[in-house]
Amino acid sequence: MDDTLYTVAQVRAIEAGARAQLAPGTLMRRAGEAAARYALELLGGRRDLPVLLLAGPGNNGGDALEMAAVLADTGIDATVLFPPGQRELSEEAADAHARARAGTVGFIDMLPPDGEWGLVVDGLFGIGLARALEGEYRDLAALLADMRCPVLALDVPSGLDADTGMPVGPDGIAVRATHTITFLADKPGLHTADGRDHAGLVRVEALGIDPATLPEPAARLDSRAVFARCLQARRHGSHKGSYGDVAVIGGAEGMLGAPLLAARAALYAGAGRVFAAMLGPHPGVDSVQPEIMFRTAAELAFGSRTLVLGPGMGGSAEAMRLLAQALDSTNALVLDADALNLLAASPELMARLARRGAGAVLTPHPLEAARLLGVTAATIQADRLAAARSLAERTGAVVVLKGSGTLVGRPDGTLLVNPTGNPGLATGGSGDVLAGLCGALLAQGWPAWEAAAGAVWIHGAAADWLVEQGIGPIGMTAGELPAAVRAVLNRLVREAGAGRP
Ligand SMILES: NC(=O)C1=CN([C@@H]2O[C@H](COP(=O)(O)OP(=O)(O)OC[C@H]3O[C@@H](n4cnc5c(N)ncnc54)[C@H](OP(=O)(O)O)[C@@H]3O)[C@@H](O)[C@H]2O)[C@@H](O)CC1
Ligand SMILES: Nc1ncnc2c1ncn2[C@@H]1O[C@H](COP(=O)(O)OP(=O)(O)O)[C@@H](O)[C@H]1O
Ligand SMILES: [K+]
C-alpha cells in the first residue's frame, strides 16, 4: 500500500519535475482520463444519468474540462458549468476547453434549480486556491452540500487546504465531496481535521509518475505495517509476568470512571496484570472486572510497571508529586488528561519530561495540546501537523494528537496520520480507553513509537468494527471499545502469523 502524504509545496515540485519530462498537457490529459474512468465506475450501471462538472478558472478547471470531453466521447451526457468572467486560461486548460467545446459537452453558466444528476464533479479549485471561496464560487460550494447524488472532487475538495485539512481563509467554506480523486500523490489535509468530512473516500492517481522517484514524504498514513513486527503470537511457555504490568494512576475523588476504563482497556489489550492506583476514595474491587487490582496511589510501588498517568487524576499536590516521580523514573509512561494539564501548568515538569528522553507517549486532545503549547485549540486545529511536530520536538516524547485523523509524531519530525476511526469515538471515555490500550502495548514490550501508532490504529479499527455491527456511530459507548480492541488485536496477530503452522 502506498501510504505516503505530500504537502502542496512538495506536489508542486514533483509536478515541475514531471512537466519537464513530458509533452505539454500530458498531466492534465491523464488527470481528466483517470477522473472520467472513476466517474464511470461511480455511475455503475446508470450511464444514462447526466453528469455535471463545475470548472474553475485554473488548471483544476482544466482537469474538469478534459474529463468532460472524455466522458462525452464515451456517450455520457456531460454538462460543464463554467462560471462567466473567467480569467485567461493556461495553455493546457485552454486546449482542454477547446476539446470539450469541439465535442458534445453542454455548457451552462448557472446551476439549473431542478437539475437531476447522476454525479456532480467539483473542478473549481485544487492546490492553487489562494484565499477563501467568495461570491459565486462560495455559493456553488454551498449548493453542492444539498446534492442527493455522489460528488467527486478533483484533486482536492474546493476550498480545502490540502496541507492542513481546514477550509482556506477565515470563515472559509469547502465543498463536501463523497469521493476525491487526488493527483500525483496523496495529501495530509484529506485525512485530518475537517478533511475526512470534505474529501469522503480518497483515491490516489499517480498520473504515470513512478512512486519510486518521489522524495521523502512529509507524513505517512498510519497502517499495520508500522507496528507489524510487534504483532507476536503468544507462546505456550509464557505466564502473566511475560506480558507486563500496567498501573493506571488517576481517580481523584468523584473521577473513578476514567481510570477504570483505561484499566479495562489495558486488560483487554493483553497486559499480564493491571492495577488501578487511585488518588481518591475507591472500591476494593471492580465487580464487572474483578481482575483489576486496586491500590491507593500513594502506596503504589512503581517497580518496572508501565504507568498510565492522568485519567481522572485531578490537579492536586499529590497528583503533581506522582507525576514528578514518574517523570524521574525510567518506567514506560503514557501521559493523558490531567497529567497533561499539570505538565502545561509547570515549566519545571516540562523540563523534567524533556530531560527524560525516550519512553513516554503523550495523548493530548486539541485543547490539551493547546495548553501545552500556550495557544488556543483553534490554533492547534488550524495546523494539526505543525502542532504535533512542535509538541514532539519540545517534549522529546511520542505525541498522539487526537481527533479525526489522529496524528502520531516523534521528535525527529516523523509524522503519521491515522485513517481508522469514526465519530462514534466522540463520546466521553474513549480517550481513556486509548491511553489504557497504549499502556498495555508498552507493557508487552512494544517500543513507544510502535505502541502509539498501534494503539491509535487499533482503537479506530475497533470503533469501525463496532459500526459495521450497527453499534454506533450514534450511541457507541467507551465501555464497548475494550472488547472490540481485543477482537481487532487478535485478528491482527492471527493475520500476521498466517501461514505458520
Ligand atoms: N499538480 C499536478 O501535477 C497537476 C495538477 N493538475 C491540476 O491543477 C490544479 C492546480 O492548478 P492551478 O495551480 O491552476 O490552481 P487551481 O486550484 O486550479 O486554482 C488557481 C486559480 O484560481 C484562482 N484563485 C485562487 N483562489 C481563488 C479564489 N478564492 N477565488 C477565485 N479565484 C481564485 C487563481 O487565480 P489568482 O486570482 O489567485 O491569480 C488561479 O486562476 C491541481 O489541483 C490539479 O487539479 C492537473 O492538471 C495535473 C497535474
Ligand atoms: N470524530 C472523530 N473521529 C475519529 N476519532 C475521534 C473523533 N472524535 C473523537 N475521536 C477519538 O476519540 C478519543 C477521544 O479522546 P478524548 O478527547 O480524550 O476523550 P475523553 O477524555 O472523553 O476520553 C480520541 O482517541 C479521539 O481521537
Ligand atoms: K476541486
Number of strands: 18
Q: Bin the helical content.
A: 25-40%
The main sheet comes to: 11 strands, mixed
Low-pLDDT parts are none
Using the CA coordinates, give the radius of gyration.
Answer: 25 Å
Number of helices: 17
CATH third-tier fold name of the largest domain:
UDP-N-acetylmuramoyl-L-alanine:D-glutamate ligase
Q: Which oligomeric state applies?
A: single chain
Q: Kindly, what is the distance between the CA atoms of the first and last residues, rounded to a whole number of angstroms?
A: 27 Å
Q: Give the full name of the CATH homologous superfamily of the largest domain.
A: Ribokinase
CATH architecture of the largest domain: 3-Layer(aba) Sandwich
CATH hierarchy class name of the largest domain: Alpha Beta
- β-strand percent reads 5-15%
Sequence-ordered SSE layout with sheet pairings:
Layout: E1 4-5, H1 8-21, H2 26-43, E2 51-55, H3 59-73, E3 78-81, H4 91-102, E4 106-108, E5 119-123, H5 135-144, E6 151-154, E7 179-183, H6 195-199, E8 201-205, E9 219-221, H7 224-227, E10 245-250, H8 257-268, E11 273-278, E12 293-296, E13 306-309, H9 317-328, E14 333-335, H10 337-345, H11 347-356, E15 360-362, H12 366-373, H13 377-382, H14 384-395, E16 398-401, E17 407-409, E18 415-417, H15 430-443, H16 448-468, H17 481-496
Parallel strand pairs: 2-3, 2-5, 3-4, 5-6, 6-7, 7-8, 9-18, 10-11, 10-13, 11-12, 13-14, 14-15, 15-16
Antiparallel strand pairs: 1-9, 16-17, 17-18
Binding site for K(+): 60, 122, 158
Cofactor: Mg(2+); K(+)
Keywords: ATP-binding, Isomerase, Lyase, Metal-binding, Multifunctional enzyme, NAD, NADP, Nucleotide-binding, Potassium
